[in-house]
Amino acid sequence: MTLDFTFFALAIPAVLFAGISKGGFGSAAAFAAAPLLALIVEPAQAVAVMLPLLIVMDFSALKPYWRQWQPRTSWILILGGVPGALLGALLIGRANPDVFRFLIGLIAVSFVIYQFSRDQGWIPVAGAPMSDRSGFLFGIGAGLTSFIAHAGGPVASVYLLSKRLGKREYQATTIIVFWANNLLKFGLYASLGFFSPQTALADLYLFPVAIIGTYLGVYMHRIVPERLYFAVIYICLTLAGAKLIHDAIA
Q: What is the percent of the chain where pLDDT is above 70?
């Protein structure tokens, strides 16, 4: 991984997008940075660079949303995320980079299709709150997709939306769940050898961008409509996901 102009030209806006999302402005789109980075570095390096930054983003966002999460819902998703992350480690530990690249691309494109279908009303939101068992299963799915591409948000949102949480309670629950999940992933990534001096140096340069993006997201969460932001995210994810799938197959 070379920390050159091309890397930072893509990494800075990608991390800024993720920070804005983590701060509360379209949180499910925070994983967009990993598919974008995977266009120019190995997939394992992309997720390794992003993980410490996501932990910092979550920590920065905890203060404005402190104790506003829904405790039971949070614990169900956190506990479900443990076997999901372990399953992801088992899968990725035995896969070659092209499989990793294909999965990240597939998750990116699937996210766009799911969000668009839901916005069009083709996928209805659950009419009644889901059970704890369902929540645990969605936690497993969130933990798995989070491990592969930091993309657990869309999976968790299906369960969270059924709970009819308020806007801030929803955001706070998402933050605390994935903060805990990311701490678990840190140990698993380290055991798989994802981290390197290059990823650590990249993080040092990108930490200020992550913090600025997070607080900008908190501000935008309060006053700015999300339609334009999501339009940009959807376009970027579709293009990046399609390119990753093409490269993996080719």
A: 90
Q: How many whole angstroms separate alpha carbon 18 and alpha carbon 37?
A: 12
Q: What is the arithmetic mean of pLDDT over 118-124?
A: 75
Residue 73 pLDDT exceeds 90: yes
67-70: Cβ within 8 A, 24+ apart: 67/172, 68/168, 68/169, 68/172, 69/169, 69/172, 69/173, 69/175, 69/176, 69/177, 70/163, 70/165, 70/169, 70/173
Residue 106: strand, helix, or coil: helix
Q: Give the pLDDT mean for 28-38.
A: 76
Predicted TM-score (pTM) of the model is 0.82
To which residue do tokens 């800024």 refer? 16
The answer to whether the beta carbons of residues 82 and 182 sit under 8 Å apart is no
Write the DSSP symbol of residue 66: T
Q: Is 57 within 8 Å of 210 (Cβ atoms)? A: yes
The pLDDT tens digits for 130-148 are 888 989 999 999 999 889 8
Question: How distant is the alpha carbon of residue 14 from its chain centre?
Answer: 12
Report CA-CA distances (Å) from 168 to 34, 110, 117, 202, 222. 25, 26, 24, 32, 10
